[in-house]
Specification:
Blueprint: E1 2-7, H1 13-26, E2 31-36, E3 50-54, H2 55-62, H3 65-73, E4 80-84, E5 91-93, H4 98-108, H5 110-116, E6 128-133, H6 141-146, E7 154-158, H7 171-179, H8 185-192, E8 194-196, E9 199-202, H9 216-229, E10 234-239, H10 241-244, E11 255-260, H11 265-280, E12 288-293, H12 294-301
Parallel strand pairs: 1-2, 1-3, 3-4, 4-5, 6-10, 6-11, 7-9, 7-10, 11-12
Antiparallel strand pairs: 8-9
């Protein structure tokens, strides 16, 4: 039985709770997890195989004479991975995908890695799913996505409305087949998508209401299918506020590109709030966050 202790300050308690759920569903082999928000709780826990400690929690341990003695005596340092709020050498950034964390744990405890026959490439997704989110409706969101796309990539419009696109298939039509979990879903995408310069685009619905008919379960099935089939090297999803408020949409993405603005103060403040909410665990997302200014991206695309 492999044992993990997760230590996080109370402000990151939700992040710790969701990290537990992820590890329980993705870990290979028997696993026991203890989660603490108070340093003194470590004294009540058996010696673990691995310790995942938030930076502030670790500082609190070292500042407590009794707990720090336990920490040093049991050589916890040799089994710890520090969870940081930013990119730091020797740490795991909480913004990164948790699959990377599992890989780090296996590297830290090589005997467990050998026991289960772990190979690093097993944690790499077959097809990356990237969400592009603008907190203010932006008719150029698809054009922004195009600046990131390469030959063979797919764009799915899930923003609040389309840009008065000509009548034809759109993401609303695709939702019907996702709801049915239709095994021919890739065929339906090819029927609906428009090709432009060897890239494929599915327009957003007229308004986002069609997107709200699907539950997390259906979206999970859909994005898992895209990853498994590897039909598209990367899938980009234009996200609007309407669908973002429904369920836990961001959990299905490997990367989020936040479209910020230098000119629109409300958009800038919203991006700040959203990034803090993800950091604190209020929004379920374990991937990589990038922030780009719409003025820069649109200028580059021109």
């Amino acid at each position: 039985m492999f044992t993990i202790v997760i230590g996080e300050e109370e402000q990151y308690e939700e992040y710790g709770r969701r990290l537990v759920r992820y590890l329980e569903s993705h870990w290979k082999g028997p696993l026991r997890i203890f989660r603490h928000t108070q340093p003194q709780s470590l004294l009540q826990t058996e010696v673990a195989d691995c310790y995942l400690l938030g930076e502030e929690y670790r500082e609190a341990i070292l500042g407590d004479e009794e707990v720090s003695g336990f920490y040093r005596h049991k050589e916890v340092q040799n089994r710890e991975i520090v969870i940081s709020n930013s990119e730091k050498k020797g740490c795991f950034c909480r913004y990164h995908a948790p699959a990377e964390l599992i890989s780090l744990i296996y590297d830290k405890i090589p005997e467990h890695s050998a026991e289960i026959g772990f190979h690093r490439e097993a944690t790499v997704p077959d097809c990356q799913i990237t969400g592009i989110f603008s907190p203010v409706f932006h008719s150029g969101l698809k054009r922004i996505a195009t600046s990131y796309m390469h030959s063979g990539d797919l764009y799915l419009g899930m923003d609040d409305m389309n840009d008065f696109h000509e009548p034809g298939g759109n993401m609303g039509d695709l939702c019907y087949f996702i709801l049915l979990k239709d095994e021919e879903i890739l065929h339906h995408i090819k029927e609906i998508a428009e090709e432009f310069q060897e890239m494929y685009f599915v327009e957003a619905p007229e308004v986002y209401f069609d997107l709200l008919e699907l539950r997390d379960e259906e979206y999970q099935w859909f994005f898992d299918r895209l990853r498994r089939e590897k039909e598209y090297p990367e899938v980009f999803v234009g996200i609007g506020c309407g669908v973002l408020g429904q369920g836990e949409m961001l959990q299905f993405f490997d990367r989020i590109i936040l479209i910020d603005s230098r000119e629109d103060r409300y958009q800038h403040v919203f991006c700040n709030h959203m990034e803090r909410a993800i950091q604190a665990g209020g929004i379920l997302f374990h991937g990589v966050i990038e922030r780009r200014y719409r003025e820069d991206v649109l200028h580059e695309s021109l």
